[in-house]
Structure formats: structure tokens, C-alpha cells
Amino acid sequence: MKKVSFIRHAQGVHNLSEKNWQIEHPDLTDLGKSQCKKLSNSLDKDYDIIYVSPLKRTLKTAELVFGKNNNFIATELIKEAIVNPCDKRESKDESIKNFPFVNFMNISDNYDYNKLESDSKIEDRCDEFFNLVKNSHHKNIAVVTHGEYLNRFLNKYSNQFNIQDKNWFKNCEVRTGFIY
Predict the structure, then answer these.
(1) Beta 174-179 vs 2-8: how paired, if at all?
(2) Nearest-CA neighbor of 173 among 139, 155, 141, 150?
């Protein structure tokens, strides 16, 4: 049995107003940083691996919640669905510079890494991530990602993780499930 904790990033500047959705690579707000500290103090941090979306707000949330942990793996599979400029990520080089303790080996700055995706492509990412987690040898997994992604992923896979709550995640909310 695997324990999987799904975490939505803390409050970012883009969460304050729809007009802020135009901001690329938004920082966390002071409240967001406070949310991370609160979660860090209440969360069991004994994870074998922490998958994190390569966007600045998720990377910063993971850092503030878990510390500069060597178990971070950035993956495009759990990035946000790109709808607004705030959903774009920084280049791989910029991310490595800002978060040198994260493993970015699976990240590529191919020609379309910040392009709008079809719903079917997002569904494919959900499927691929589900299979990655299901087939992983790790027993305690954390996933730091985004509200829209979590909504899509858990609408499809909540039963497999025995997670009943399908409501929209609040900033820095965690839901834990188990999969065999």
C-alpha cells in the first residue's frame, strides 16, 4: 500500500484577483508563505519522494513546507493546465538557478512547454502520472501541484486513492489517499 498526499500550492499573487492572472511566474503572497509554515508544522514529512510541478509557486510551496529536500522531482505531468499567463513556467535554467535542490532531469525546454494544451493532452498527463504513482516502488509520496490539475486528476482517480472529497482544493490544502 502507498500513501499519497496531494497538496495544492499556497496562495500566490495571481490568486488575489482575476487581473493578476496576467502575471507570469507569480510569487507567493505573505499569506501563502504563512500557509506553508502552518502546513509544515502540521504535516508528517516522512516522504520517500516529492513530485512537484515545475512552476515557481509550487516549487516555493514545496520548499517552504518540506525544506530543501533532496527528494524533490519536478515533473511536467502535474503542471497546471495553461489557460492564463500565470500558468506558464520559467525556463529550466532559471528554475535550476532558483531551486538547485530540485531534480529537473525530466524537464525540457522544448518549443511548446508553455503552449495551451488540449483537454485530451491534459487527460493523458493525468493518466501517465497515475501510472507513475501506481507503479512506483516508493511507499510515501507527496504531490505538490495546482487546483485545476488536482480537480481533473481526482475527478478521474479519486476512487483508486479512496479520496471522497472531490471539492476544489483550497490553497495549501492537503488530502491524503492510499493506493495498492
Answers:
(1) antiparallel
(2) 150
The model carries a pTM of 0.96
Q: What is the CATH number of the domain that holds 138?
A: 3.40.50.1240
Domain enclosing residue 104, as ranges: 2-179
Neighbours of 118 (CB within 10 A): 9
State how beta strands 72-74 and 49-52 pair. parallel
Report how far apart, in Å, the C-alpha atoms of 34 and of each of 57, 75, 178 are: 14, 25, 28
Between CA 18 and CA 148 the distance in angstroms is: 15
Residue corresponding to grid cell 516522504: 47
Tens-place pLDDT, residues 109-162: 987 788 888 999 999 999 999 999 999 999 999 999 999 999 999 999 999 999
Smallest CA-to-CA distance from 35 within 18, 12, 2 is with: 12
Buried b or exposed e, range 74-83, using 16+ CB within 10 angstroms = bbbbbbbbbe
Q: Indicate the number of domains in the chain.
A: 1
Beta-carbon-side half-sphere exposure of residue 169 (alpha carbons within 13 Å): 26
Residue 122, C-beta contacts closer than 8 angstroms, at least 6 positions apart: 81, 149, 152
> What b/e readout covers 155-164, taking b as 16+ CB neighbours within 10 angstroms?
eebbebbebe
